[in-house]
Every structure is written in structure tokens, then in C-alpha cells.
Amino acid sequence: MILPMARVEVLGPRDLLPRALELLQVRGAVELRPAPAAARPAAPLPGAPERAVRLSEAVRQIDALAGRLPPARGEAAPLELPEPGTQALLDRLAALESELARIEARRAALAEEREATARFARLVVALAPLTHGVDPAAEPELHGLVLRSDPAALALLESEVRRLSGGACEVKARPLDAEHTGVLVVVPRAAGRALTALFFERGVDEVRLPPAYGGRRLLDVLLLLSARARALPDEIAAADAALARVAAGLAPALARARTRAEGELARLQAMGSCGETRFAFVAVGYMPADQVAALRAAVAAELGDRLTVLAERPGRSEWSQVPVVLRNHRWLRPFERLLALVSLPRYGSVDPTPWLALFFPLFFGLVLGDVAFGAAGAAVALWARRRGWGGRVGRDLAWVALWCSAASALFGLLYGEALGELGVHLGLHPLLLDRRRGFMAFLGGVLALGGVHVLLGMGLGVGSALRERHLREAVGRGAKLVLLVAAAAAAAALAGKLPPAALRPALFGTVGALAVAVAAEGPMAALDLVLGLGNVLSYARLMALGLASAMLAEVANLIAGTLEPAPVGIAISVLLHAVNFSLCLISPIVAALRLHYVEFFERFYEEGGEPFRPFALDA
């Protein structure tokens, strides 16, 4: 149902406006609207623009910090941050950002060193047996390279190195694997800068040894690298632990500060929608009518009789502006998700959720109609709900799927089907109809159900017009409803489904209803008879989809029983049943939604409702 709303006005002394807004925000029950034109917009508080800028910047910095924090582990001392909207908070956030950046930089440096150490160790293991003949007095520098195995490139490299160092160098290489070669280049310190520039110009990746390893023997370097490789994981773990400790204390504080900052920013912005006079203010909005008493009690407890809450039912002229709240029984609430493809119903109109909850599973089961498929669908739906797949939306859709699966299993019993005709071998027999053979009766039943569905929509349309006191529209809609019923009765009498005596009253009813409809809505109302019959015939698609599913199941069973060798036939049959099940998860959903949106809703549904957005603190 669409929850009844109340138009509320909160009035009080002008100096209480900030406290009143804070109270309304904490209660979270009123959607604020612009104040009446008779009251001028409330003036902002002194310093409010500058404070709003600081609040926005604080929210931006908090979001940036929170996005960089790892998941919190363990407990930490609670951290208190300065009041939102102050420069002290911005300064504290900047200091926290610097501290976090320092820890992150340390952690990144350790990770980079671990990767480099692994590369150093691989190269040094290959080159450790090699020695060089560069004079120690020249302070030799060691440069390591990993190149693709190419003798010509190695020869060119050696000639360039000798040119730069004046021949005082050593270039030695050893294969690392089938494609790569490790190269050790030893030059005097005086030639080291030129050699590095050469590597950069030629795009050669140098495996740079840390400065602490310079001047040592390669065997000593290998021992140092091994020791460092053992120490680095502990240092990285310590850095991660430091980040986790910071997150444990900082994340809750940032969340609290963000909530407070956004709340105050929203209050500053909400003041613009309030009105004021020289001594008083007024805040106007809409809220659920059943919450007005609770709001009045909260206002009285907080501010006594200094604030007044006036409430009244919205007039029909403003129904198009009233926000919409749908409130249905918890068993029906998941079916509200099926309205996601259309706008909310306008306030004062009809909520179709209960009818969706009745007819959508009915149409789905009418098409699928198989005990085995229904059991499989129910198992999947229960598994999805238990695993919490998709959060709240997923649980709601799984609930809808569960009811659709139950309807499929029920119709499977009525049709006597379980994986098609296999149900007969399991002792199933049609309790109502064998749709594979009695397809004309199946078509008649589907069209009868479609007629009921369309007529129900027309009846809801009549009630909606009466509720809005559009009497001429209500008469026209009622006449078209009678016109469709009388025409269907006349057709049934001509087909021998009703006694011949029913033909004359049905014809008189058709002519009379047509005359009333034309008088109420004009000549175009006569077309509604044709459109209505077309709407009813659209439900024949349910029979077509159902028969297609049943025939595909029969084909699968026939292949399993006749194709040789038997394992191949069974495998193809299982595949066809799986394809049939997959198609039946899509086709009935699309068909049932279309029949509701096009054939059913057009008779009464008035879209254009806006969701209720209360002035509240974000959870």
C-alpha cells in the first residue's frame, strides 16, 4: 500500500531554527520542502559560507584518507578529532595524511627492496664465481645486467664499455637460462656515471646493487643479500601491522567525523529551504502520517512548547508533489523490486505490489509447470538466500524466485509433468490438464485468466478515478469494463459456451455500455473494445511459451530413449533439459513482466511518484 502522508509545518522562534533542524535531522522523518512564498528565505548564520567550505573540504579529505586505509585489525586507543567545520580539523587531517604517507612510503620502499633483492640474488648467484682484474685503487664499481642471449649485442656492449673506461674494465657474462644472460661490468668509479648514461640511452635495464654492497666481493654480496632477504618479510609485516593499528584507531574516528560534517553541512543547506519572519521561522515538509505523534512528542521533550508542529492531510491538488512510501507485508515487500523498471506510483493512486505478488508467480508457474524444474529453482533460491548473495536486493529476488518455483511445482502437479513426460513414469498424472494434448483447453484457460487480469486492471482504474473524484472518467472506465464483459459474454453465447438465452442481454449490454462510454469519453472510446480484446489475446503468449517448454522436454526424453549409444543419448537429453531450464528462467519472466506493464498497468497505473527522501543523518 501507499503509506498516507501528512503535510507538516514546524514553527518557532527564529533563534531556535538551528536546533529545530538538528532535531528533525536526528529523527529523520520529514522530507523538507521550500517554505511558503509569504515567508522570506531564512538568512544564513554568521560565518556559514566559510564554515560550509571547511566542512566540504573536511569531507573530501576524510574520504581520501579512508580510501587509503587497510582493513583494521586488532584494537587501538580511540582517536578523537577536532570539531567539524574548524580549521583545527583540517590541520589534524593534514597531519594524519602525512603520517599515513610516511608509513606507506616505508612499506613501498621495503616491497621494492624485496623485489630488487630477489633480482640481485639471482644475478649474483650466477656471477659469484667470476672475478675481475680492475685495480682496487681505481675504486671499481660493479654494474649488473640481465640481457637476452645475443653474442653480437654482448660484443657491442664490451666495445662501448672499453671505450668509455679507456680499457680499464672487465665485462664478463654467464647464461642464466635458455634466453637470458647475466653480465657483470666492472669499471673505475670515474667511468661509472658515463656507463650509467650509456645504459639509459640504449634502454638497458640495470640491476643496480645497493650502495652498501659496493666494493665488496661477489661472494660477500651474496651473503648480504641472503641475510637481507630473510629480514625483509618481517620488516614488511611490521609496516603492515603499523598501518593496521593506524586504521583501527583512525577509521572509526573518520567515520564519526564524516557523519557529523555531512550532517552539519546538510543543516546549513536546509536553512535555505526554511522561511522566516522578523521573529519566527517555519519549516515545511512531508512525513508519514503515523509518525506525526512521535515527532510532536520528541519536540515537546526536547524544546517544550517553544516549537509547534502542525500537520494536515495533503489536498488532492498537491498529490503530485507528495513523496511516496510503499509499505507492504514483509512477504509482499520483495515484489516491490519488480517495480524497478517503472516509476513509482503517484501518491493517491494504487500500489500494484499485492497484485504483482499474486499474478507474477502464477504466470511464471503457468509457463514453466514442471515439478523437477520447480524443485531445482527452489533449491537455487534457498541456496542464494542462505549465502546472502547480492545483499538485500539478492535476498528479495531470491524470495520472488522461491514463490515462482513453488508455483512451477504446483502447476507441474496439475499438468502431471516432471522433466516432461518422465513424470508419468514417476507416478504423476494430470490433476487438471494435460497441456501437451489438450492445448485448446490450455489456450482457453490462459485467455480466461488474461481476461480476469485485464478486467481487474479496469476495475482498479474505476476505483482510482472515483477516489480522485473524476466522475466522468470513472463512468467512462466503468462503461468500458461492462462493454468488454458483455462482448465476451456475447462471443461465448455464439460459440455455444453459454446458453443461447444469454446472447440478447449480452448484445444489449454491449450496445448500452458502448453508448455510455462514447458519451463519457468521445468516439475514441469505441476503439477500447478492440484494444481490450487485443490485450486479452496477448496472454496467449503464455500458452505458446508453456507448450514450447513441454515440447522441448519431450524431444529431450525422446532422444534419451532412442539415440544409440545410450550414454550419448542421455548426455544430449541432459543438455537439452538444462537449456530448457535456462530458457524458462528468462522467457516467463519477460512475458509476465510485459503483461503486467503493458496490459495490466495501463488500465489504472499512474506513474510519476517521487521516493521519500527524509532529512536525516546518513547511516
From TrEMBL:
GO terms for cellular component: proton-transporting V-type ATPase, V0 domain; vacuolar proton-transporting V-type ATPase complex. Residues 86-113 form a coiled coil. The keyword Nucleotide-binding does not apply. The chain crosses the membrane at residues 355-384, 396-418, 438-466, 478-495, 507-530, 542-563, 569-593. It is a multi-pass membrane protein. GO terms for molecular function: ATPase binding; proton-transporting ATPase activity, rotational mechanism. It is found in: Membrane. Keywords: Coiled coil, Ion transport, Membrane, Transmembrane, Transmembrane helix, Transport. One of its GO terms (biological process) is vacuolar acidification. Belongs to the V-ATPase 116 kDa subunit family. This is V-type ATPase, 116 kDa subunit. It comes from Anaeromyxobacter dehalogenans (strain 2CP-C). The lineage of its organism: Bacteria, Pseudomonadati, Myxococcota, Myxococcia, Myxococcales.
